[in-house]
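Review form for a predicted model. The reviewer records the input and the model, then writes brief findings.
Reviewer: anonymous (R2)
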Amino acid sequence: MLAVACVLCGALLVGTGHAATKPLLPGSVESPAQFVPPPPREPTLAERAVQIARTQLGVPYVYGGASPGGFDCSGLVMWVYGRLGVALPHNAAALYSTGRFVSLSQLRPGDLVFFHGLGHVGIYIGHGRMIHAPQTGERVEIEALGERSGAVEGARRITTA
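Model under review:
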C-alpha cells in the first residue's frame, strides 16, 4: 500500500532509482506546448518609406514639385522621408551625399537609386524596381531599374542614426 501511495505522489520508485512521473488528474489530457507566434515587428524606416511612396503612384510629375499635387524625382523622395521625420534636400545630387553608400548588390527597399550623373533619383522597392517621378508629362510610377535609360550611378541608404 505504501509503495502505491509513493508512486501516486511522484516519489522515487523503490529499487529503480527513477523518479515517477506526475500522475495526470482524472479526465485531464496532456497537451504539447502551444506555439505562440512572436509579436509582429514594427516596419523599418525604409519599409515605411516604400509604403508611403506607393500611396503617391499616379501623381503627376511637376518640375520643382514636392507635394501630392505634383512631384519631381527629388521632391518625391524629400516628401516621403519628410513624412517620417527625416529632412532631406530637394535635389538629386545633394541627396547623394546623405545617408550611407550602398553597393548595388546590397540594395534593400527604401534605398535611394541614382541615374544620369546624379540628375535623377528613385526609391528602390525590391525585385529590381523603383518608385519615381520620371519626367514632365508622366506620373509617379514603378519602373524596373534596367528599363531606365542609363545605368544606375549609385545608391544610398537613409538612416536616422
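Findings: The first strand starts at residue 66 and ends at 67.
Further findings: Residues 73-83 form the longest helix (11 residues).
Recommendation: see findings above.
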